[in-house]
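Morning F.,

Quick status update on the modeling queue. The single chain you submitted on Monday has been processed. Sequence for confirmation:
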Amino acid sequence: MKLEERKVIFCQLGERLSAKIGTEEVDNLIRRAKNKNAWFTEDNILMSLNEIIRNFLNKEKLDSFLEQYNEELFKTDSPKKIGIVAAGNIPLVGFHDLLTVILSGNIALFKPSSTDEVLMNYVIEELISIDPAMSAFVEVVERLNAADAFIATGSNNSSRYFEYYFSSKPSIIRSNRTSIAVLDGNEDRIQLGNLGNDIFCYFGLGCRNVSKLFVPKGYTFDKFYESIEYWNTIRMHHKYNNNYDYNKSIYLVNMAQHLDNGFLLLREDQGLSSPISVLYYQQYESPAELNTYLEEHKDQLQAIVSENVKIENAVGFGKSQSPELGQFADNVDTMAFLLNLA
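Structure tokens below.
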């Protein structure tokens, strides 16, 4: 099957998924996914589906993405078997890896996360139902012994396990990363409201969720809290609320300084990854000091959210969870890795 044919099938997948949203079939799918993973709310599943349809399965975006690579590299007569160990922190988070492996002409041995297998298995089944020939490019597996190379995503602990067991073959191993936002104090309410999406979408469970703010010295958070107030219903989700109550009680018992608006705790902290329901912040005195910090910690950062033109490779407020095809996890070009396998 030629690259153009595979691309057309993925575009058809986008059209099919779009047409099925709102149908009883997808409603039942959402219920099954929620029963498997309580963090997967209907809103979050639909958000992920729509982002994939809009950014990954759009013909113009696929064309623009693929034209960056040498077309000859896609014409392989000896495809490799690529073992994919998918994460399950947010709905369909492993889809990008699946897409790039199949488009590259290789074969995906896909091991879904137990927390996301309902959604990923459904999408794979839909892909094959469009053209049964796609079954030659993807197989859902429990073991990856037959793989020639690996793409694995997990925690810092599991990444060490992956590095040990996959050390003899080419691999991309991803560990914990997080995202931050940089404010300069001139943001308006709309910008800060959009920042709320970067913080709260998927309950903050994604590596592209903002877990820490960098603010100028003396920054006050009144406007920030007022601008994100529309997210106050997040406490209606019992798992998020349990985290909020727990972290709040810890801060109160330990008399730790913090700010609280009733659904988000703000705490000044040098750490990057904050607990669910907590947002860390750190003050900076100069752009030079900030840039030095960002450079020193770039290997721990997935995305930087800011509209300050002096911040390199930043994404705008509200856009951290809308990555394009070429915005790779850990900034490692998965397609280049796949196309250049010996």
